Amino acid sequence: MSEPGAKEALTDALEALVEGDGDMGELADSIAFLTAYLNAFAAPGFVCAMVPIPPNPAGEYEGVGGVAKAWSDWGATFETVHGEAIEIIDGPDTVVLFVNQIAVTKHGGVEISQPSAILVKFRDGLASRLEFHLDRDAALRAGGIPAGPG
């Protein structure tokens, strides 16, 4: 049997996560997984983007190392950021993972729960772009997947 391609490898890992307890662990755990995956499957010119709720512009980070930088910038406000994987949606040349982020702020210890999504786009069989979205429907649109009723 041949080695799985980039999309299949990611989908298999995410399905196992969702079918298990969905616990993505703390920020560092997720970044370590993504970095290992991308070291094997990132396309030349790979970009990571943090996509906030409009009208704020997306922040883009180049290369696999950009993933850790993006999360470091995002997580700077929080003492902890924990993820719960909820659902995978498979699109043409894309995979979207719906996540619930639970974060505790550094100042005041306020717990925040934020529905969000991780979108991975594929080109020529490799991961070309990773986007972290705070708006799940925007992630679906960005991935060319019709949003469901809601």
Short description:
This protein is α+β, with helices and mostly antiparallel strands.
Helix and strand layout, with pairings?
Elements: H1 6-19, E1 23-26, H2 27-41, E2 42-51, E3 59-62, H3 65-75, E4 78-91, E5 94-105, E6 111-123, E7 126-133, H4 136-142
Parallel strand pairs: 2-7
Antiparallel strand pairs: 1-4, 2-3, 4-5, 5-6, 6-7
Helix pairs in contact: 2-3
Give an account of the 3D structure:
The structure is a single chain. This protein is an alpha+beta fold. It has one domain (6-136): Nuclear Transport Factor 2, Chain: A. The chain has helices at residues 6-19, 27-41, 65-75, 136-142, and strands at 23-26, 42-51, 59-62, 78-91, 94-105, 111-123, 126-133. The chain has a seven-stranded mixed beta sheet, sandwiched between helices. Helix 2 runs antiparallel to helix 3 (65-75). The mean pLDDT is 91.
End-to-end separation: 41 Å
What is the radius of gyration?
A: 15 Å
Number of strands: 7
Structural class by helix and strand composition: alpha+beta
Fold-level CATH name: Nuclear Transport Factor 2, Chain: A
What composes the largest sheet?
7 strands, mixed
Strand fraction equals 35-45%
| Assigned CATH class | Alpha Beta
Keywords, separated by commas or semicolons:
alpha+beta, Nuclear Transport Factor 2, Chain: A, seven-stranded mixed β-sheet, 150 residues, 4 helices
